[in-house]
């Protein structure tokens, strides 16, 4: 959208180009199709006609879950989306239960999933379902098997006016494609920083969490009539392996062993099964009853998670945006990436709508600033959690503060919150329980400050057996002279604008979320 040139009565700008047909690219396309005459999606892969993993998204072999906020946005962008997934074979989560296994691998909390409709499926099916719907939109075209290899800038570098492409795998011929707006959604492997530097831009320092994450995933097949006590199970990693189990389409399930700090789980089948037994042995007979392995475990390693700060560039060029993993990528164990991409798409829609009504200069940089506000809670939650693991380090212009204190608080919350919850449930206050709030916070539906505050801390410490934690907390707080709430104001970023879109949206509709 050209700065200050488009009003509600003017015609749509002609062409937007989206680089990458992953989740972020598809969601951006869905939004842009309402504002541009044509949207061209340029993708490196030849896109499969059926739901299949593909080379350009190597992570798609691994389990991908969508957080509650992401589900709400998908349903809004594509009405009937959940029904579509179920029609195409996704596992129905209605009347099923989830299992949260404690870090010791023995104790667990079993809870029913939400009463409403919900589904679980592979990343390949999820992406395919979105792609089918985007391909059907008026004005949208896909140019596949093409590598974007650079940006074309105006002579004064104030505008990005096009992209340079060549056929995937060919080194010779290249062509340029002109566009009014280009959105880079090419994922973790994005070359955007390189392209901008080539054009002479100076980049602000990014933030990096050197987590050295390792995944190992194995698929299993169940008989068609298998009975399942739980549809999902999760054991968070601590000093030991984390495990995630999820039932998927076609009577299959995926099991991940995940770890951090360079403790990579094995991809050898026998070693994988052994590590699984150590991690969640007592639950395996129920989870994998009658299941047969479909393949050998496959690994994935992520040395570092990166949050770029393009929004800080005062000379950010017009005609260019960036979304999804190319802007900020997370430790996947928290399942945030696709939902954050959905929040960014919704942010883009809001900005385009405002720009149409009240055109302002510097539109693209403004969009990046708004997206960055939306990214903030997810980045903070996953970084704080990762940084508590030995060997994980952070680099960036403003170090994360109070990591140990926040982790102790969250440990307290999970340990003593359920003690209060029994009382709250007896009083009919299910909507106020600690476990629900924890779920909503990690689902990016409420601000971390609704869970982490002085009032809640007081109730947690009121539990009699909390004396050891009280002592530890007192020791940690010695480093801070202020009151607890003031300390939190200092160490937790200001998320006051991060949930703006959600409030407006929540008034419009209600979509069920699974717990
Ligand atoms: C192991 C693992 C597990 C994960 N699990 C979860 C999860 O449970 N939940 C969750 O929400 N997120 C998860 N994620 C993150 C998730 O995959 C991404 O955040 C999400 O898919 C959004 O990514 P994206 O669309 O920005 O990029 P991608 O999905 O990576 O898509 C980028 C697209 O751009 C194309 N492309 C790249 N370069 C070019 C180029 N030069 N020219 C043309 N095309 C190009 C690629 O082929 C690809 O199609 C996981 C990630 C990993 C690594």
From TrEMBL:
Keywords, alphabetical: Oxidoreductase
Domain FAD-binding as annotated: residue spans: 15-353
InterPro entries named among the record's database cross-references: FAD-bd, FAD/NAD-bd_sf, Flavin-dep_Halogenase_NPB
GO molecular function: FAD binding; oxidoreductase activity
Pfam family, one: FAD_binding_3
Gene3D superfamilies associated with the record: FAD/NAD(P)-binding domain (3.50.50.60)
Family recorded in the similarity comment: Belongs to the flavin-dependent halogenase family. Bacterial tryptophan halogenase subfamily.
Name by which UniProt lists this protein: FAD dependent oxidoreductase
Biological source species: Ktedonobacter racemifer DSM 44963
Phylogenetic classification of the source organism: Bacteria, Bacillati, Chloroflexota, Ktedonobacteria, Ktedonobacterales
């Amino acid at each position: 959208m050209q700065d200050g040139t488009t009003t509600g009565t003017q015609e749509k700008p002609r062409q937007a180009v989206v680089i990458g047909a992953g989740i972020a690219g598809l969601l951006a396309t869905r939004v842009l199709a309402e504002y541009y005459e044509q949207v061209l999606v340029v993708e490196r892969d030849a896109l499969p006609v059926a739901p299949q993993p593909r080379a350009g998204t190597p992570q798609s072999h691994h389990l991908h879950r969508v957080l509650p906020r992401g589900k709400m946005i998908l349903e809004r962008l594509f009405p009937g989306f959940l029904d579509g997934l179920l029609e195409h074979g996704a596992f129905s989560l209605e009347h099923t239960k989830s299992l949260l296994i404690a870090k010791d691998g023995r104790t667990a909390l079993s809870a029913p999933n939400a009463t409403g409709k919900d589904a679980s499926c592979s990343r390949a099916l999820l992406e395919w379902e979105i792609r089918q719907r985007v391909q059907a939109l008026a004005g949208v075209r896909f140019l596949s098997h093409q590598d974007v290899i650079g940006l074309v800038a105006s002579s004064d570098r104030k505008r990005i006016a096009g992209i340079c492409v060549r056929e995937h795998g060919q080194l010779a011929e290249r062509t340029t494609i002109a566009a009014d707006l280009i959105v880079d959604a090419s994922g973790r492997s994005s070359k955007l920083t390189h392209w901008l530097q080539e054009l002479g831009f100076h980049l602000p320092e990014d933030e990096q969490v050197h987590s050295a994450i390792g995944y190992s995933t194995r698929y299993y097949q169940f008989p068609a009539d298998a009975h399942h006590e739980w549809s999902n199970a999760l054991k968070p990693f601590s000093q030991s392996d984390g495990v995630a189990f999820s039932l998927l389409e076609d009577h299959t399930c995926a099991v991940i062993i995940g770890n951090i700090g360079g403790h990579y789980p094995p991809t050898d089948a026998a070693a994988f099964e052994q590590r699984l037994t150590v991690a969640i042995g007592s639950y395996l007979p129920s989870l994998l009853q009658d299941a047969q392995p479909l393949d050998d475990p496959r690994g994935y390693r992520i040395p570092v998670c990166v949050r770029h700060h393009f929004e800080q560039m005062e000379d950010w060029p017009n005609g260019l945006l960036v979304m999804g993993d190319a802007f900020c990528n997370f430790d996947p164990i928290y399942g945030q990436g696709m939902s954050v991409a959905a929040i960014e798409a919704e942010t883009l829609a809001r900005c385009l709508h405002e720009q149409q009504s009240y055109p302002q200069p510097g539109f693209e940089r403004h969009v990046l600033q708004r997206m960055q506000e939306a990214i903030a809670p997810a980045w903070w939650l996953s970084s704080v959690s990762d940084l508590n693991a030995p060997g994980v380090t952070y680099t960036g212009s403003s170090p994360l503060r109070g990591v140990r204190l926040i982790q102790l608080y969250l440990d307290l919350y999970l340990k003593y919150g359920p003690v209060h919850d029994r009382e709250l449930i007896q009083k009919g206050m299910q909507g106020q329980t600690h476990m629900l709030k924890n779920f909503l916070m990690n689902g990016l539906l409420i601000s971390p400050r609704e869970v982490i505050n002085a009032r809640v801390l007081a109730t947690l410490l009121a539990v009699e057996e909390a004396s050891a934690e009280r002592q530890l907390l007192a020791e940690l707080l010695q480093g801070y002279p202020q009151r607890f709430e003031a300390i939190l104001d200092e160490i937790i970023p200001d998320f006051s604008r991060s949930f703006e879109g959600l409030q407006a949206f929540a008034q419009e509709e209600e979509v069920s979320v699974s717990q």
